[in-house]
Amino acid sequence: xxxCGEGEPLLPFTLLKESDNFTDVYxxxxxxxxxxxxxxxxxxxxxxxxxxxxxxxxxxxGKTIYERSFGDFNNRKKxx
Length: 80
What we know:
Layout (H helix, E strand, L loop, with lengths): L1 E2 L6 E2 L10 H10 L22 E4 L8 E4 L6 E3 L2
Antiparallel strand pairs: 1-2, 3-4, 4-5
């Protein structure tokens, strides 16, 4: 169910086309005489994280420097 605008009643979706090829779906969208919505499912690929890689960050242009492992946003160590 989807609403066309705030406060508008919910309307059901009808699947017109499903494909892994965006061009196929878009051509169906262009040929449709009724309003359409294209929904993309971008599958996020897992990124291999090497914890040995270190990231150095400074929130104050170098006055303070923090070190953390790549991919770890919660554990950082102040080194300067």
